[in-house]
Specification:
The chain is built from 15 helices and two strands. By secondary structure, it is mainly α. It has one domain: Orthogonal Bundle (Farnesyl Diphosphate Synthase), CATH 1.10.600. α4 runs antiparallel to α6, α10 runs antiparallel to α14 and α14 runs antiparallel to α15.
Length: about 300
């Protein structure tokens, strides 16, 4: 990992944690347990990849970092909500997440469901607040884009496909489509959010969309490699569960070496999409390279 990326990861972790700390101050009433569960899920842990992508894309257009951090918190709210719900017994039934007990294990199942619901609502509250951007049209576009990325045409739709994956035959095209929705849509939002904050018209975002597309697939293949080969303690969650559940993965379909080569090729393609940007895109380039080198 480069010194640039190491520094930026430390900065984004601090910024996101401090904002969650301020947003989730436990009230002196019966909601305290819910707030404690949300703090357990959101503060301390995780790669913060999506907020980092918002920050990296926003600096291409000289956006105020404070605005980018707020959008980063919003997208992290959606990501954390998805993890809480994915870990539930009715979904993936996981005991560990980010190196600590999952929310339904640390608290209870009902509290975990409410915590996920709370994060989903909080994401859109943040985006709609004028502190995120002074232009109401920018805020509206951010809300619409995140709703699409996290809903039926994005993350939730991909999770539904994933739940059905163990019951039907899956080919490479189907798995790619599944992951583009489940994982890629939120990554794509994070990148495009920087352009929205910078008021770049939709027709000018082609290169950034290409970057996000290739990065999202590279990230998921790297995740599949970690699930197949990674150490559970380093990864922070159980490994080998997809294969045990009979789900098709990139590693299962391509084999370890082809999957590793494909991830590297996609990361290089993602970087190539940034050729027309200067040093202001270095963070995005570093993220793409790190995606296929990480151990968690």
């Amino acid at each position: 990992m480069s010194e640039l990326l190491k520094s930026e990861l430390a900065t984004i972790a601090h910024e996101i944690d401090s904002r969650f700390d301020a947003l989730l101050v436990p009230p002196d009433d019966s909601r305290r347990t819910l707030y404690a569960a949300m703090r357990h899920a959101a503060i301390g842990g995780g790669k913060r990849l999506r907020p980092l992508l918002v920050s990296g894309a926003a600096r291409l257009f000289a956006v105020d970092p404070a605005c980018a951090y707020r959008v980063g918190v919003a997208v992290e709210c959606i990501h954390v909500y998805s993890l809480i719900h994915d870990d539930l017994p009715s979904m993936d039934d996981d005991d560990m997440r980010r190196g600590k007990p999952t929310v339904h294990k640390a608290f209870d199942e009902a509290t975990a469901i409410l915590a996920g619901d709370g994060f989903q609502a909080l994401a859109f509250e943040i985006l709609a607040d004028e502190d995120t951007h002074q232009d109401p049209f920018v805020r509206a576009e951010l809300v619409l884009a995140l709703a699409r990325a996290s809903g039926l045409s994005g993350m939730v739709g991909g999770q539904a496909m994933d739940m059905a994956a163990g019951q039907t035959m899956q080919d490479l095209g189907t798995v790619t489509r599944l992951q583009q929705l489940k994982t890629g849509a939120l990554i794509a939002f994070a990148v495009e959010a920087g352009a929205i904050l910078g008021r770049l018209p939709a027709e000018g975002r082609t290169r950034l969309r290409g970057y996000a597309h290739d990065l999202g697939l590279a990230f998921q293949i790297a995740d599949d490699l970690l699930d197949a080969e990674g150490d559970a303690q380093a990864v922070g969650k159980a490994t080998g569960k997809d294969a045990a559940a009979g789900k098709a993965t990139f590693v299962g379909l391509l084999g370890l070496e082809r999957a590793r080569a494909q991830a590297q090729s996609l990361a290089e393609q993602a970087i190539a999409h940034l050729v027309h940007f200067g040093r202001e895109a270095d963070l995005l380039r570093e993220i793409a390279a790190y995606t296929v080198q990480r151990d968690r």
